[in-house]
Specification:
Belongs to the GerABKC lipoprotein family. The protein is an alpha/beta fold and 358 residues long. The protein contains 11 helices and 14 strands. It has 2 domains: 189 residues; 132 residues, Nutrient germinant receptor protein C, domain 3 (GMP Synthetase, Chain A, domain 3), CATH 3.30.300. About 1% of the residues have low confidence.
Length: 358
Amino acid sequence: MKWVHKILVIASIAFFLNGCVKKEILDDINLIEAIGFDYAGDGNTSGTILYPIYQPDQPPENKTLTAKALIKKSILQDIQLQAANPIVTGSMEAVLFAKELATKEGVLELIDAFQRDPGVGSGLYLAVVDGEARELMDGNYGVRGNATFISNLLENNIENEDLPKTNLQKFLFSYYQEGQTPFMPQLKKISDEKIELNGVCFFKHGKVVETISSDQMFFFRLLVDKYSNGLHRVKIKDGEAAVRSIRSTHNFDLSKRSPLEITVKIKVQGIVNEYTGNEVKPEQIKQLENAFGEEIKKQSQELVDIFKEQKIDPVGFGHFVKTRKRKYDLSKWLESDLKNLTVKVVPDVTITEAGVIE
């Protein structure tokens, strides 16, 4: 009869635990899908939550609530004073920071609240807004709701375009990692129905110190992430080609220890999807490979120079040096050693085939 006793004990425990779970009905809560923060002056921060109102046979209605507070962690409490239902964070997809706030006040205190919230997943997207976060969230961007649109926009650009992988977990990893600094994508509202990814923002001590344009994102991704699918246009004397299905890898080599020198080998493979010239002959393929390689070398080197000037290291050169030099001290990396680092970019471009000719 021992097995009967075990079943009764297990059933009792399950019943007890089930009674301890707080039940929440969707119609009786405000399920936050996104939150944005803006600079409100005099040390104040304005927070705006975005939550859906579900209606039968219709797209969700985007609703927002806004509150201003001096103590950043009390913003949700102040917003709750305006809400008829409890505010729940378990379905958040994106957190947005106005660029003015991210530059003047920083984002670490705000992010800290989310990393401590057990209801928030580590895959949460973070982004800087070129403008006001509240204004961006007030648009109407699709039938699945604004938060889902923003999340899908970032996910699509990570999977198919030039945005390196980024989320809450990766931002925090880069921030706490010795010899590396974090970054976030930058979004801009174009109209009430359109948002674009228009760059990447780089942080130092939790504040934005530099931003690159969308045109530079391709080369930044070559330095920090892999390509499994991509597109880039390359110009030569005889025409212009769209190189698609780009696959890339990068490898670092500590080529000199004193003074420090890192060789970055970037290997790129792709196909010519379109070409504006008359015919893609082996001669044109070679020209495209050379032109593409020179562009990678030039643009990547310019990015490295920007990072050295701003004393930031989103690529993680410092962390790499630490793994190659025993007892290396990173305490002065950003302030002095990074400036004296020599970085050589060595591209290896292979175009495997040619497609449509215009």
